[in-house]
């Protein structure tokens, strides 16, 4: 038999709570609620208030610089003034359009503690198995912000899920060529390596004009892989991508500390939108690292953590299945399981069918 409290007592308890308790509950809800205010603020100017701010900014930055006089000089030396006009110099307004897409949101996150107004369409994902920054490909007007993000997070390895020509233009995919953001950063491409599984590695040098001279240059490795969005992703290509990423991280740790212990580095992962392929790769890399260090992995918990930190991730079954497909292949590659084991073979076949089914639904417009 269940004992229930009287209705009057229940109502009394629910309606006589103090204001402080309500405020505490509200604060907890607000803390748990993810916001995209910074994303909206850095999008296209919308509404009368945004347009008014833009117009006011332009007017405030518009200054008269000189007066131009148009005159006619006669043969006898007399000069007749026709008109006088002020030329005005207009300073560039703040860039509102910092997002590549208006429908791919980005959770609010202060990426630069020294400048809270700094904004990139990016989020951090820090774990005991690797530290990552996941971002969209920069636009022409945000390449400087992209390089600044790489500098403040001490990024030495970049994983690019698209060919170099589609990476956003923050580096030039030709040996000896440089990309410069005036008085801020220069990214110079030193060497290009064509590697196995269709990967291309660019060894670059990132120079900061504001850093001390002895610390103004860093070696950056950019690994480019043409990874499909909705089709079957090669697990071998994904694992080779991880191997290069880990190798560059370990090399940097050895050069910095003289040991591989406590190697703390940040890897920048980007595609175009920075959601589907990037999240799937990062989650798979974390789970593969879990296998190497603990002999087991947790798919759901890792994906949940990713979903809490990066908007629009884990919105497609295809990405979830693809990460598992890569992890299972990696487990066989490092001999955690046997490739000939019946259960493993069946699991890989099931995952492949599920991925292809998702791809077919995408093509015929019936995707979940």
Describe the structure.
- It comes from Caenorhabditis briggsae.
- One of its GO terms (molecular function) is protein tyrosine phosphatase activity.
- InterPro entries: Prot-tyrosine_phosphatase-like, PTP_cat, Tyr_Pase_cat, Tyr_Pase_dom.
- This is Protein CBG14908.
- This protein has 368 residues and is of the alpha/beta class.
- It has a domain of 243 residues: Protein tyrosine phosphatase superfamily (Protein-Tyrosine Phosphatase, Chain A).
- It contains ten helices and ten strands.
- It has an eight-stranded mixed β-sheet with strand order 3-4-10-5-9-8-7-6, with helices on both faces. A two-stranded antiparallel ribbon has the order 1-2.
- Helix 7 packs parallel to helix 9.
- The radius of gyration is 27 Å and the shape is globular.
- It starts with 6 loop residues before the first helix and ends with a helix.
- About 3% of the residues have low confidence.
* Spatial gap, N to C terminus: 44 Å
Shape type? globular
CATH architecture of the domain at 122-364: Alpha-Beta Complex
- Tell me the radius of gyration: 27 Å
By DSSP, the count of extended strands is 10
What are the segments in which pLDDT stays under 50 over at least 5 consecutive residues?
A: 62-66, 87-93
* Strand arrangement, major sheet: 3-4-10-5-9-8-7-6
CATH class of the domain at 122-364: Alpha Beta
Helicity range: 25-40%
Let me know the largest β-sheet: 8 strands, mixed
Q: Helix segment count? A: 10
CATH topology of the domain at 122-364: Protein-Tyrosine Phosphatase, Chain A
Give average pLDDT, whole number.
84
CATH-defined superfamily of the domain at 122-364:
Protein tyrosine phosphatase superfamily
Element string (H = helix, E = strand): HHHHEEEEHEEEEEHEHHHH
Structural class: alpha/beta
Strand content: 15-25%
Organism: Caenorhabditis briggsae
GO molecular function: protein tyrosine phosphatase activity
Pfam family, one: Y_phosphatase
Domain Tyrosine specific protein phosphatases: 242-321
């Amino acid at each position: 038999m269940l004992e229930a409290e009287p209705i009057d007592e229940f109502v009394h308890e629910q309606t006589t709570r103090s204001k402080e308790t309500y405020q505490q509950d509200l604060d907890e809800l607000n803390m748990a609620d993810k916001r995209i205010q910074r994303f909206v603020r850095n999008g296209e100017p919308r509404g009368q208030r945004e347009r008014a701010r833009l117009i006011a900014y332009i007017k405030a930055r518009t200054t008269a610089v000189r007066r131009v006089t148009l005159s006619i000089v006669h043969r006898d030396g007399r000069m007749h003034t026709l008109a006088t006009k002020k030329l005005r110099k207009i300073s560039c307004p703040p860039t509102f359009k910092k997002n590549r897409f208006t429908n791919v949101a980005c959770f609010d996150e202060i990426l630069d503690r020294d400048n809270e107004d700094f904004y990139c369409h990016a989020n951090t994902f820090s774990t005991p198995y690797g530290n990552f920054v996941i971002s969209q490909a920069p636009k022409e007007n945000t390449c400087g912000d992209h390089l600044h993000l790489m500098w403040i997070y001490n990024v030495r390895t970049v994983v690019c899920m698209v060919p170099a020509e589609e990476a956003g233009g923050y580096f030039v995919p030709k040996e000896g060529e440089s990309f410069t953001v005036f008085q801020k950063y220069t990214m110079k491409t030193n060497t290009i390596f064509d590697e196995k599984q269709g990967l291309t590695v660019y060894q670059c040098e990132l120079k900061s004009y504001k850093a001390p001279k002895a610390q103004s240059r860093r070696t950056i490795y950019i690994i480019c892989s043409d990874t499909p969005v909705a089709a079957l992703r090669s697990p071998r290509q994904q694992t080779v991508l991880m191997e290069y990423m880990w190798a560059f991280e370990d090399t940097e740790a050895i050069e910095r500390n003289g040991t591989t212990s406590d190697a703390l580095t940040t890897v920048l992962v980007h595609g175009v939108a920075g959601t589907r392929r990037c999240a799937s790769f990062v989650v798979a890399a974390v789970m593969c690292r879990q296998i190497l260090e603990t002999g087991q992995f947790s798919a759901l918990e890792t994906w949940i953590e990713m979903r809490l930190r990066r908007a629009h991730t884990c919105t497609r079954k295809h990405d979830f299945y693809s990460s598992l497909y890569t992890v299972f292949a990696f487990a066989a590659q490092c001999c955690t399981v046997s490739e000939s084991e019946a259960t493993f073979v069946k699991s890989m076949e099931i995952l492949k069918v599920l991925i292809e089914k998702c791809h077919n639904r995408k093509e015929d417009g019936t995707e979940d």
